[in-house]
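Researcher: Go.
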Amino acid sequence: MIPTKRPPTTAVFYSISNCQEGLKGVTFGNFLLKQVVEELARDKPSLKNFVTLSPVPQFTAWLERTASDADGEAVAHEVRALLKVMRRADWPEGASDAEYAEIETGLMALAAHYFLNAKSVDGRPVDPVARFHLGNGARLDRINFLADTSEKSMREACGLMVNYRYEPKEIERNHEAYANEGVVASSRTVRSLLKLKSKARAIVAETPPQPALPAPEPEKAET
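Model: Structure:
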């Protein structure tokens, strides 16, 4: 029996650029993804889930700053230990089960802190991709461990990728909360990572503000 083809239920945005013909004239500050979501939902009613698969281009740089922070030596030591393992030529294939589990737990706890608590001097998240999607009304939905093991991603993001979810009924509310109060809309799954029982979760709740990062270039923004 030939299986019945089911209509799609999920749309995943991997990258987006207003250099593309269909996006000319659409500004990134004007609910870009909201417009796309509405058009997709109208054209394909079976679609119910709208998410991105996004890079984390500043995460390793943030870890390296944390590793050299003299004001939090215990945390800095833990981060240096994590980075030492991840910089080995045989990581992750050659890691023992114990090493793999410790790195995953520690890194996910740190990543949750990076997205939810680490701020620039303007009070916004330090991650430029997060700033883009949160500003467009998305919710930080999931952090994915070793989702991209390409050389570039391992170098810049320790292999992490993120799902931002666009819920049509929540987009404007999330945008307003972020624009007015700097609220990072996030799922319970992401928030629970802050409670991971790892040495790495000893990271201070108040990270010294970092210089504000520039917004993505108008002509192209990674999702």
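Model: The chain is about 40% helix and 10% strand.
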